[in-house]
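ok trying this again, last paste got cut off
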Amino acid sequence: MRLKTSLTITVFTALLATSVSHACVPGADTDTLPPPLQEILAEGCESSAIYHTAGFLLRREQPDAALPWLQALEARGWQLGLDAEVPEGTEALAVTKRLNARVVPAPRATPGRRLQAPSFFPEGIAADGASGRLFLGSLTENRVAVIPETGPATFWPLPAHDKLRAIYGIKYDADANQLWVLRNRTDVNDVQDDAPAAEILLLDGQTGALVRSWPMPAGTPTELNDLCLTATHAYVTDSRGARVLVLDRNRGSLTPLQINRRLYYPNGIVCHRGGSLYVADALGLMRIDTEAGASARLEAPEGQTLGGLDGLALHGDSIIAVQNGIGLPRLIAIDISVSSTAITLLDSGNPTYDIPTTVALMNGTAHVIANSQMDMIDRFHDAPEETESLLSPVVILKLRLDDKQRAAGYEKPRSP
């Protein structure tokens, strides 16, 4: 799920801001710099942390304080632009305009399937290469849409629950013909009752019938965001818990993965061969050894960042990623086979973008949720009829991958 403005504020202000002096951006006003940003800046002055700091200060209506951070991005050759409201007549706005002028739109993906259900608010997508079906999960309607190659969509209602209605990540297991679904509370902070905080659901891939569920303990803020599968385990990111959960598919046990560093709103995840995971968080992309718990952040090329990634899809030694939490939204390919990470721009400036979220690969084509419109959810809850008239049908973009980024569809890695 996209690290929305409200969530950014939650993550970076949950801890008390303290006054520090930092050499990353000399002369910058750091009195309101949240400790998580201080920590990541101390590790290496990542561009993603500089971006979040600038955005944090702009949301606090402090454009003068944000200015040195924006200038630092400009000096680094920042190429992703800035998605923020900046007051007119400020030097911060002048720098923002220069940064955004560097972004050259490259809309290569084209509209594919559509879902004529504007208030569905999709977040997760999965694909079944054998049948050609796409699966979408709704953030508001407690159901999964099944979209065939031709013909209308059908819907699988999930077990009724008055609290758990928001579907995030979903994954299709072709070997077992099963669909994995992560279901959360509509309000992830509302956990003061005896109902589960969230749950993992396993559905029959042909009928949508519930096969099994794993409820999360009540009383603890939990946000199950995305998952990846191996033959023996499912790995699940918990954004609010700042952790990765490991589900043993044979025993049914669920335990936290021990990692040697902190995660900041972990989001997209892919399972790679050799027991490695790649986990995206607000500040970058991390490689994690599932056996030892050792981890390392991947370095992005100059002017780029791997922060703010949402949905990830693996093929071979490349990761196809939707980047929507930093800068202007885009679709990229990340080559993880080389020591210095390479990034290829696949799609940006697409006119259908309205908070794109996740991607699924099927038979050489990337399928991307282009317009989740999730920033309208609160308004929809308050005034559904009025808001629905402002929403558009859901668009799934499709992009045929060239030989360099070619994928044969979702392939479940096998444990070594």
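PB: full thing came through this time. Helices lie at 5-13, 35-44, 47-59, 63-75, 91-101, 377-382, 384-388.
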